[in-house]
User: Which sequence fits this backbone?
């Protein structure tokens, strides 16, 4: 019989104490459950009168956001931990360190990042993160290159892919991102004020065609080990430092899905900006910064990825002239399409973003929702004809009326 049960705060303290070297011997520990995500318990363990602390993240056997009626495999905790370890080995400065774990109890003990801010919150506050694009570009390039058939032994990759079969979490993505927004699903949620937009999405078969192509790639292309849910709520930031967390949706999928997640979430904040910055000058500055950041994310990714390809390519046939350019363009087109899908789902689907939903003024909120949908649809519709990141930005501006 399984020993699994949700931890109590007291048990979390005992676990933290049992880890050698993490707290001074006589330390008096305190613990708070701080999980505000959709799926897990998160315990923050701190020592009184010292700066020692850690995080214990534990999966529950259902989606917390919905309740016990939506069962989820506890194996996702192992998948998340192994993905964190893999990402940390490839990008030590950009991913928290794992201190301990139990697969049976579905928990991981890891570095506490409470001195950081969740990026989504920081962007809403109008903060700028000048190092972010460089950091995330490096994270994307290294994690995607070294877990693909380009940078990893191809037999090893197949074995590794077996450890990242993640059916429950992939199913969430397949439904919530690639299906529900385009049909009358009980999972969907949107205000009456944009019911016309939701209805239009359901009837737009040309858009459905493009979404179906992207969905098929998500279902079938095991290109690299993805983070799988790389939105701005899965990234901690400080002015000089970036940390990627929460890879429980990790699986082998198309590279563009992770890159598109980052760009789509920056663009959701861009669509929300008039709701947060009343002064037109401040608004314009924020919008320019977000567009530039989206562009820079791609540029840093591409530069790093090409460098890794030129230095560390294992696959001989991939040295064929012209193949690198073809490959990189394909990833850009995918990234733009997935960015669009991610924007659409956050407006009409089950799980929204606070960038938009917490805009106080109803008119500004509705304008942001419509702008996000317009950008998302434009990216999805035209993703296959994109030739450069400038084309992506042009599609964004065109849909925003800028
Ligand atoms: C039921 S989980 C809803 C969403 O939260 C996660 O962060 C993923 O984006 C998922 O789609
Ligand atoms: Mg998450």
Assistant:
């Amino acid at each position: 019989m399984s020993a699994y049960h949700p931890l109590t705060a007291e048990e979390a303290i005992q676990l933290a104490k049992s880890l050698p070297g993490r707290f001074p011997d006589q330390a008096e520990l305190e613990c708070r459950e701080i999980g505000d995500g959709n799926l897990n318990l998160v315990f923050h363990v701190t020592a009184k009168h010292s700066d020692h602390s850690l995080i214990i993240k534990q999966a529950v056997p259902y989606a917390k956001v919905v309740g016990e009626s939506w069962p989820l495999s506890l194996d996702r905790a192992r998948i998340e931990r192994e993905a964190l370890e893999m990402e940390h080995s490839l990008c030590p400065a950009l991913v928290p360190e794992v201190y301990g774990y139990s697969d049976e109890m579905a928990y991981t003990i890891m570095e506490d990042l409470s001195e950081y801010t969740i990026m989504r919150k920081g962007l809403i506050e109008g903060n700028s993160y000048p190092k972010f694009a460089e950091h995330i570009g490096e994270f994307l390039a290294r994690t995607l290159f070294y877990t693909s058939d380009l940078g990893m032994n191809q037999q090893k990759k197949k074995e590794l892919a077996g450890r990242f079969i993640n059916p429950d979490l992939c199913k969430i993505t397949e439904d919530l991102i690639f299906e529900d927004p385009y049909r009358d699903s009980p999972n969907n949620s949107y205000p009456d004020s944009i019911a016309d937009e939701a209805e239009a999405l359901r009837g737009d078969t040309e858009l459905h065609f493009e979404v179906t192509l992207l969905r098929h790639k998500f279902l079938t292309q095991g290109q690299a080990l993805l983070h799988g849910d790389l939105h701005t709520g899965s990234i901690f930031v400080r002015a000089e430092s970036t940390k990627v967390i929460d890879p429980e949706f990790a699986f082998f999928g198309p590279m563009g899905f992770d890159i598109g997640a980052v760009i789509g979430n920056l663009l959701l904040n861009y669509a929300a900006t008039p709701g947060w910055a009343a002064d037109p000058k401040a608004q314009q500055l924020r919008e320019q910064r977000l567009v530039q950041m989206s562009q820079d994310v791609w540029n840093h990714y591409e530069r790093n990825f090409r460098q890794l390809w030129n230095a560390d390519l294992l696959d001989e046939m991939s040295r064929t002239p012209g193949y690198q350019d073809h490959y990189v363009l394909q990833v850009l087109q995918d990234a733009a399409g997935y960015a669009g899908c991610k924007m659409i789902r956050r407006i009409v689907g089950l799980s929204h973003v606070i960038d938009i939903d917490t805009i106080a003024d109803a008119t500004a909120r509705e304008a942001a929702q419509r702008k996000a949908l317009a950008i998302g649809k434009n990216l999805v519709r035209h993703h296959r004809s994109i030739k450069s990141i400038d084309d992506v930005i042009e599609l964004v501006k065109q849909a925003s009326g800028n």
Notes: The chain has two domains: 9-110, 117-400. Residues 280-312 form the longest helix (33 residues). The radius of gyration is 21 Å.
